Automatic annotation (TrEMBL):
It comes from the Bacteria. It comes from Pseudomonas chlororaphis. SUPFAM superfamilies: MetI-like. This is Binding-protein dependent transport system inner membrane protein. Residues 63-243 form the ABC transmembrane type-1 domain.
Length: 260
């Protein structure tokens, strides 16, 4: 048996084991002390709810709202985070000026920004995009700074000795050298942007996966809660994998450790 086939078999077996455990725990109403499965829907009831969501046409509307918000905020965060990260990583002046306020803002969770975002922006749509932006910004920014600072100084010295200007050094040495760290930050930022968006939608949204999940809880439609959770997980995982794949295509010179 080849190694890739064995790995995919192991991954499939782990998913099947989780589904089996879920089915048994929910159907038999297991009570494990701190955790009880008395009100948890079974995988079959969740599947029925998911199929019904598609039949009613709700899925496209919720998905469209969430995807539009998350990609608007994420793209803005990618542009700002990479630009600021390069500036901070390259310039001590920019580091001293920009990094202290950014480090103060970085630990503030997304949910704490929601009341202020509602006051700052004229519509709830813009406030949710802003929350997504803040969630994605800091992973992208910090990974970009780390990548820029980690560029081999010998490469910079060699480029200068060959007569390269500041622009050429930036585009041909620093950006390619920092690209793996930047891509890692972009992938992490995509995941955190979904987390922050769902939090914002639960509080101030009218459509979206987060709003759908919270609404299902308030009306005690338990299978739909799990449908919303699984949609969030699949969308977050899929979009992060997409960023990693695109990054691999754009950085063919970089081979992660462990890959042959």
């Amino acid at each position: 048996m080849s190694d890739p086939l064995f790995r995919w078999t192991a991954r499939g077996a782990s998913l099947l084991f989780c589904l089996l455990f879920w089915q048994l725990a929910a159907s038999l109403h297991w009570n494990l002390g701190l955790v009880t499965f008395a009100n948890v829907p079974t995988p079959l009831s969740v599947l029925e709810a998911a199929l019904g969501l598609g039949d009613l046409g709700k899925l496209a509307r919720h998905l469209g709202s969430s995807l539009g918000r998350v990609f608007a905020g994420y793209l803005a965060a990618a542009l700002v985070g990479v630009a600021l990260g390069i500036a901070v990583g390259r310039s001590k002046w920019a580091e001293d000026l920009l990094l202290p306020p950014l480090e103060v803002l970085r630990p503030i969770p997304a949910v704490a920004w929601i009341p202020l975002a509602i006051l700052m922006f004229p519509s709830s749509e813009l406030s949710m995009i802003f929350i997504t932006f803040t969630g994605a910004l800091f992973p992208i920014l910090l990974n970009t700074v780390h990548g820029v600072e980690g560029v081999d100084r010998r490469l910079l010295a060699s480029a200068k000795s060959l007569g390269a200007g500041r622009r050429a050094i930036l585009l041909e040495v620093i950006v390619p050298g920092a690209a793996p760290s930047i891509i890692t930050g972009l992938a992490i930022g995509m995941g955190t942007s979904w987390f922050c968006l769902v939090t914002a939608e639960m509080i101030s949204g009218q459509y979206g996966i987060g709003y759908y999940t919270w609404e299902s809880y308030t009306i005690q439609n338990y299978p739909d809660i799990v449908v919303g959770m699984l949609l969030i997980g699949v969308l977050g995982m899929g979009s992060s994998l997409l960023i990693k794949r695109l990054g691999g295509v754009l950085t063919p010179w970089h081979r992660p450790r462990g890959n042959t």
